[in-house]
Q: What sequence folds into this?
């Protein structure tokens, strides 16, 4: 059986994922990943849930059509026929991870979830200031009290600035590039 290590993509927050699943994810919790690419980090989160016996509901939100801020990714999407939705589905299946994929704009997808319904939300879609702020503001109400929001690519100033403005100053950056904060 394949694992997240066999999937193309980015995933440099293994220790944070492990701590979040082990210490913060309730038995039947909800995890939402905004910006999925081919599923590597979504699958890794699912693998950690399996490892720690957490029967969590996993959701992946993406347009599955590339990113306007990453020309390399756009070329890969073009080579995959304009969408990587099927590739992500296949990767989930190959790794025996059950997740619901939502092929939708992030803000419109957030409207499909009730407020205070998610335990952990990862924001890792477009990395522009506007997009990160928009995603954070759209998904923050969906987080339960004492839930956690994570952000990737916090090594970029525009990401940190957007998070500070949309969330507030109380977030921490985990080496190498992931930020996190708890909703109180």
A:
């Amino acid at each position: 059986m394949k694992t997240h290590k066999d999937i193309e993509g980015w995933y440099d927050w293994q220790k944070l994922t492990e701590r979040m699943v082990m210490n913060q994810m309730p038995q039947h919790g909800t995890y939402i990943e905004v910006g999925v690419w081919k599923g590597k980090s979504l699958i890794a989160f699912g693998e950690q849930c399996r490892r720690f016996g957490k029967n969590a509901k996993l959701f992946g939100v993406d347009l599955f059509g590339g990113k306007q801020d990453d020309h390399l990714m756009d070329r890969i999407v073009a080579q995959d026929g304009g969408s990587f939705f099927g590739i992500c589905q296949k990767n989930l299946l190959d790794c025996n991870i059950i997740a619901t994929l939502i092929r939708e704009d992030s803000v419109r997808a957030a409207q499909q979830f009730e407020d205070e319904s998610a335990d952990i939300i990862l924001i890792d879609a477009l990395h522009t200031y506007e997009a990160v702020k928009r995603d954070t503001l759209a998904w923050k109400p969906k987080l339960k009290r004492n839930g956690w929001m994570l952000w990737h690519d916090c090594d970029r100033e525009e990401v940190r600035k957007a998070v500070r403005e949309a969330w507030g100053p109380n977030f921490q950056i985990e080496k190498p590039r992931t930020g996190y904060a708890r909703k109180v």
